[in-house]
Specification:
Blueprint: H1 5-10, H2 14-29, H3 33-39, H4 44-51, H5 55-63, H6 69-78, E1 85-88, E2 93-96
Antiparallel strand pairs: 1-2
Helix pairs in contact: 4-5
């Protein structure tokens, strides 16, 4: 018989439980580009027009696992957003300048 995740989790060490909770939290924060676009009720055709490209290129961009920051910046700005990149260190956070991309 299958066990529930809560049953399995209860048998984990506290360190493992905390790691699971942190990873779950991280995954819930991650959003894909196409999900943002859809939430804003923007079609791929609309994005293609805003980016002066073809719909197929928008689709390809949304599926990329790795892209240039300049591409991501243009895409976010075409949706009306602003790209903000933050480097987090143990003692501080630094906002990186992406205006020149």
């Amino acid at each position: 018989m299958a066990k529930s995740f809560s049953t399995l989790k209860s048998k984990m060490s506290l360190i493992a439980q905390k790691a699971v909770e942190e990873k779950t939290s991280q995954l819930l924060k991650e959003v894909l580009l196409h999900e943002i676009r859809e939430q804003l009720h923007i079609t791929q055709e609309d994005m293609a027009t805003k980016l002066n490209t073809k719909q197929a290129n928008v689709s390809r961009t949304e599926r990329r696992r790795d892209m240039k920051l300049s591409t991501l910046k243009r895409y976010i700005e075409a949706m009306g957003g602003e790209l903000d990149i933050v480097a987090k260190f143990a003692s501080s956070e630094v906002h990186l300048n992406v205006k020149e991309l």
